[in-house]
Specification:
single chain, alpha+beta, 244 residues
Length: 244
């Protein structure tokens, strides 16, 4: 339980809520308050610091807007997970998390065999009615929900359920002899659906990033297509641009 040390100077021109926000911000950015640690509740902190509850709420809301804390109805206010940065290279999210020092895990939401409709057949370059596997996973980083991963595979290259649970998708496909060498990807933003907010433990209508990808093997065959939903406040994509 975090009980931040805050010195309130009532004669200062700095608003009381900012006097609370700043030392907490410093502790988080310096790594002295760690992701997942929980703060004392608003009422307790307000009494301890001798300020009003709305003042403490204002301070925490500023920290939420800075992406430094997350507020959960069941868990209270906790230090937010470190932001995940990804460069535009062909890697799996699982491997990126490991590389950046996070502890990834996966929950399999569903795994089912379907006959491809027109949309999926077009994306996978197969015939309508061909058998495909649809897998929906929840990717967690340090036990915090980060992304909903929905993928479609032609039946002949679909990983097994257990394989999807234990590591990165492209590493798994590689172990099956399927070498993914390129992909077409688009990134957009929208509001989360009710189902998505429940899985990601976000507020209703929270912003999310939608990453849509179609991946190809070395022979140009499409081996998977995916729609991935990421929590916007702790995920970003970075690009290197050069002049022509």
């Amino acid at each position: 339980m975090i009980k931040p040390e805050v010195v309130i100077e009532r004669n200062s021109d700095v608003p009381l809520h900012a006097q609370i926000t700043e030392p907490i911000r410093q502790k988080i950015t310096e790594g002295k308050f760690l992701p997942g640690q929980r703060f004392e509740d608003e009422i307790t902190m307000a009494k301890r610091l001798g300020v009003s509850r709305p003042t403490v709420r204002h301070a925490f809301q500023t920290l939420v807007e800075l992406g430094l804390v997350v507020r959960r109805r069941s868990a209270g206010t906790i230090v937010a997970p470190r932001e995940i940065h990804r460069s535009p290279v062909l890697t799996s999210l699982y491997d990126d998390l490991v590389e950046s020092g996070h502890s990834p895990s996966t929950k399999l939401i569903s795994y089912e065999y379907l006959h491809a409709d027109d949309d999926i057949a077009d994306k996978l370059g197969i015939n309508r009615g061909d058998l495909v596997v649809k897998a929906v996973r929840l990717r967690l980083s340090d036990n915090e929900p980060l992304a909903i991963l929905k993928n479609y595979f032609p039946d002949e290259v679909a990983p097994a359920k257990d394989d999807l649970m234990r590591g990165g998708l492209y590493r798994t496909l590689g172990e099956m002899g399927v070498e993914v060498t390129s992909a077409h990807q688009t990134v957009s933003a929208r509001k989360a659906s009710t189902e998505e907010t429940d899985l990601l433990q976000e507020k209703r209508g929270a912003p999310v990033l939608l990453v849509q990808r179609i991946a190809f093997d070395k022979n140009g065959r499409i081996v998977e297509c995916g729609d991935h939903i990421y929590r916007a406040h702790n995920y970003s994509v970075s690009f290197v641009l050069t002049a022509t």
